[in-house]
Amino acid sequence: MEDVTAGFIGFGLIGGSIARAMKLRLTNTHIIAFNYYQDRPNTNLEMALEDGTIDLISTDLAKDFCQCDIIFLCCPVLTNIQYLKELKSIIKPTCIITDVGSVKGNIHTAVQELNMNPYFIGGHPMAGSEKTGYAHSSAVILENAYYVLTPSEQVEQSKIDFLYNLVKTIGSLPLIIDADEHDDVVAAISHVPHLIASSLVNMVKQSDDPDEKMRLLAAGGFKDITRIASSSPIMWQNICLTNTKSIQKFLERYIATLTDFDKALSDCDETALYDFFETAREYRDNIPTKKVGMLKQVYEVYLDIFDETGAIATIATILASNNISIKNIGIIHNREFEEGVLRIEFYDEEASLAAVTLLEKYRYNIYKRK
After folding, report:
1. What is the pTM of this model?
2. Rounded distance, CA 8 to CA 19, Å?
C-alpha cells in the first residue's frame, strides 16, 4: 500500500472522500485528478489541490494517467464509459480501473465490449450525504460503510486483493459479489423501496381532498416511511433507466405480495394477515443497525416536552451550548403510532448519541428508535 499513484476522473463527494481517506491512511500516496473542463478551472480540484488532498490537476490523460496504479471513475455511468475508451490505450498492464456507480451492469457490459476485463473491478461504496460536491467530502463518510466490489472476468487475483485491502485500509467494509447479483440486491433494498415510497406519496396526494386533510395528518409514521421519496428525481430517473431489468424483477415480486395481501383481506384470512406482519416484524428487527447500508440512515431522537412557552428554545439552547448541531426539529402532532412529542434530527450518529446523553442529564424522557 506504499507509493500508490491514484488517478481520479470526477471529484465530487465520493471521489473526494476516497481521496481524503487515502491521503489520511496510506503512506506516500500520489493523487492525480483530471480536469475535464479543459478550458476553465475546476473549483473542486483547485480546492483539493490547495488543501493537499490531490498532488496534480491533469488536463492530459495520456501524459499523466499512464503512471497510475489505480484509476477511480467517479462520473455518471455513461460518462465513465466514455473515459474507458480513452484510457484503454494509455494505462499500464498492472493498472486497476474501478468506478463508484450504484449500478454495475452497464459498465461491465462496456468493459466486456472493450476487452478491458483484465483491468476492471467495479466498485460501489454504500455511503453518501444529502450534500454534494468536494466541499462536503470527508474520509469519515466511508468509515464502516459497505464497499461492494464486482471483479470482471479475467482480472488477476492480485488486483482484486490490492483493491480489497485498499478498501479495508480506508476504513470501509469490502464485500465481493457478482455484478448482476449486485444490481439485484440494490434493486430490492434501495431502488424498489424508492419507487414504493414515491408511489405512496403520490397516492395520498391524488386521494386528498381540497382541504388537504391527509397532508395535514401525514406527520410522524407516514413521513418517516416515505422520507426517501424526497431524493433527486433526476438521479432516480437515471437509476431506473440503467437498472431496469432488476427493478422490474423485484417490482413484480412486490406486486405479487400486494395481490396476495389483497386476497387475504377479501377472504378475512386471519392467519395470513397475522403471518404477513409477524414475518416482516421479525426480519426487520434483525437487520443490523450499526453498519452503513444502501439507504441513508436517519439520526433522530424523540422526547417528551412540556407544553409551555420556550420549551423548544430551551432544548435548542442546551444542544447549541454543547456544540451539537440540529438538522431539523419539530413537534409531532399525529402520534397515533409514535412516542415522544418532539422530534430532533441530527447530521450524524455521534451528534445524536451526544444529544441523548446530554438531554437525559436534564431529565428529559427520551424514546430511542430501533
Report:
1. 0.76
2. 8
